[in-house]
Design brief:
heterodimer, A: ten-stranded antiparallel β-sheet, four-stranded antiparallel β-sheet, 17 strands, elongated, B: about 170 residues, three-stranded antiparallel β-sheet, 3 helices, globular
Chain lengths: ~280, ~170
């Protein structure tokens, strides 16, 4: 008898969504964080015979991010000081919406195959055997509070930011052939839309800002667990296929892009200019 | 007793006075008991553990300017071996929105005190552009500083990172 997953045994419990909290400004940086973290626990039962080879059986998590909204608008003190729009959720700063979300190299597939809480190997012993893992994630983001507008030579102050991160987290088993067997999954997200205004010019300290959520702008959500594999084609293609960049890589790439003068994702205007944040 | 009567600050004062010899480096090691270099000769760089797990100083105890990688390695002990984690830990002394450069330069006797590591893989020092980001403890960990050309490694003493702090 070869080792196999007991049908229907894979389940996710104790699901807690990550809660987006109001941003703070520290050392000139607007920080967006989640607290408490997303958390979930998973377990899968295996059957087999004592002596069956256990090498190559793994239990862990695969996570995809499939929606990312990520932009910031900046304004000078006066109209002639200009404005800026930094678009990190769309090309060219971000090549694609969906990505596989690994802590290390994207080729590892699992969220972190080196962390014994997130990832387990089957162990020698009696069957049936239940393998338990858990996952945690507090995503975050940052924007500089003040950017220099090269068209006007003036400081532009962060005025509004919108972030929307949507994830699907999957409890999965990898067998010795390398094939994945998705056991269950759930969805979760974190949203921030906040407006900022300095209370002093031209060099506000960290304490000299007002920060207010846009109506409905500070929300987070989480689903219950669904059995089996997800079937949403907006992200199923990135779950186990070769990928060039992880979601963490993409977030870093987009930050670098909007900090680079001349990049099309960093739009600088000579006067206050409205923009279509969808592009 | 000698160990408890000379502070790290006193050691640093000695640095300033120009006593940058290998002998002094060894004295510093003895006083702090928290370094390793991965080399058999006199150390060039030491990593001193500070008052809490994840808090360190990186000190150039050589007579030469050292070029070190701005990103350190965090290793976890698993099944008796040290393995590299995906933790982002950088030689940055404040959370000013910038990542460390590829290489940082340390003059003889100079030190860097990185923002302490809280245990998270991505935001363990500062809020950053993080998506996957999880608490890596509990477990045994150590820091590794590399020379910028990656030919030399300097390791800290192992330390225990406890379980994730409870949600307030």
């Amino acid at each position: 008898m070869a080792i196999s997953v007991v049908p229907g045994s894979g389940k996710i419990t104790k699901i807690q969504g990550g809660k987006s909290v109001a941003p703070t400004i520290s050392r000139g940086v607007a920080n967006f964080s989640v607290h408490p973290s997303m958390h979930a626990e998973g377990e899968v039962q295996f059957k087999g015979l004592p002596g069956d080879p256990i090498a190559g059986w793994h239990v862990g998590w695969i996570q995809a991010e499939w929606v990312e909204t990520n932009w910031a608008n900046y304004e000078g003190h006066f109209n002639v000081d200009g404005s800026m729009f930094l678009q990190r959720g769309r090309a060219p700063a971000r090549a694609a919406q969906a990505c596989r979300d690994t802590s290390g190299a994207v080729a590892t597939i699992f969220t972190d195959p080196l962390d014994p809480r997130e990832f387990q190997n089957l162990v020698a012993g009696r069957f049936p055997q239940t393998v338990k893992v858990q996952t945690n994630d507090p995503p975050g983001e940052r924007y500089r509070a003040i950017e220099h507008n090269v068209r006007t030579g003036k400081p532009n102050f962060i005025q509004e930011v919108q972030l929307e991160f949507h994830f699907c987290t999957i409890l999965t088993v990898q067998d010795p052939t390398g094939a994945f067997h998705h056991q269950a999954h759930f969805y979760w997200n974190a949203h921030w839309q906040f407006r900022f205004r300095p209370t002093a010019f031209p060099a506000p300290t960290d304490a000299q800002w007002t920060i207010h959520a846009a109506p409905g702008g500070n929300t987070s959500g989480v689903s219950h667990a669904f059995a089996g594999a997800p079937n949403d084609r907006r992200f199923t293609g990135v779950l186990t296929t070769p990928q060039r960049s992880s979601c963490v890589d993409l977030a870093g790439i987009s930050e670098t892009a909007v900090r680079t003068r001349g990049n099309a994702s960093r739009r600088e205007f000579a006067v206050w200019t409205p923009v279509d944040v969808r592009h | 007793m000698f160990r408890t009567t000379i502070s790290s600050r006193a050691c640093e004062a000695l640095f300033v006075s120009g006593r940058r010899t290998a002998l002094f480096a060894l004295l510093l090691i003895a006083l702090n008991g928290s370094i390793s270099t991965g080399q058999t000769s006199a150390p060039e760089v030491i990593i001193r553990s500070l008052n809490k797990p994840g808090a360190i100083d990186i000190v150039n105890v050589s007579a030469s300017t050292m070029s070190l990688r701005g990103r350190l390695i965090v290793e976890r002990k698993r099944d008796g071996s040290w393995i590299e984690t995906p933790v982002v830990f950088q030689a940055i002394e404040s959370c000013d929105g910038n990542d460390a450069p590829e290489c940082v330069t340390l003059a003889p006797g100079a030190r860097i005190r990185p923002v302490a590591w809280s245990g998270y893989t991505c935001s363990g020092q500062c809020t950053r552009p993080c998506r996957s980001n999880h608490y890596n403890g509990p477990g045994e960990f150590r820091f590794v500083v590399q020379s910028c050309d990656r030919t030399r490694r300097y390791t800290s003493q192992p330390f225990h990172l406890g379980p994730e702090p409870a949600t307030p």
